[in-house]
Specification:
Length: 113
């Protein structure tokens, strides 16, 4: 049995090369949007980008909010405290290892000649 329907090839549409934006442009675009008082759509149109791209950049490049800033600060304090404790423990271990690896001094080890 012969199939009368021939498969038609779909003409390939030349894909546009994807535009690359450097991080400085992204940060500047987000800063412009947040400081201008304009909508994301207006800024995106002025810059020739998609509005959804501007929202994505905001998630990554927007400055931290005061609440996020306080969380970051408290985490830094906790990490510094932990770092100091770990340094103390390391120093104690170094001193202990130094004491244990010293050769016994003569006359002090309890043996008699």
């Amino acid at each position: 049995m012969k199939n009368n329907h021939e498969t038609q090839a779909v003409p390939s549409v030349a894909a546009k090369p994807r535009r690359q934006y450097d991080p400085a442009f992204k940060r500047d675009a987000v800063a412009l949007w947040l400081s201008s008082g304009k909508s994301a759509g207006q800024i995106a149109q002025e810059l020739g980008i998609l509005e959804k791209r501007l929202y994505a950049w905001r998630r990554r490049y927007a400055p931290a909010t005061p609440q996020e800033q306080s969380q970051i600060q408290s985490e830094v304090v906790a990490l510094r405290r932990e770092n100091a404790l770990l340094r103390q423990q390391r120093d104690i271990l170094k001193k202990t290892l130094g004491i244990l690896s010293e050769p016994p001094s003569s006359g002090m080890n309890g043996s008699r000649p």
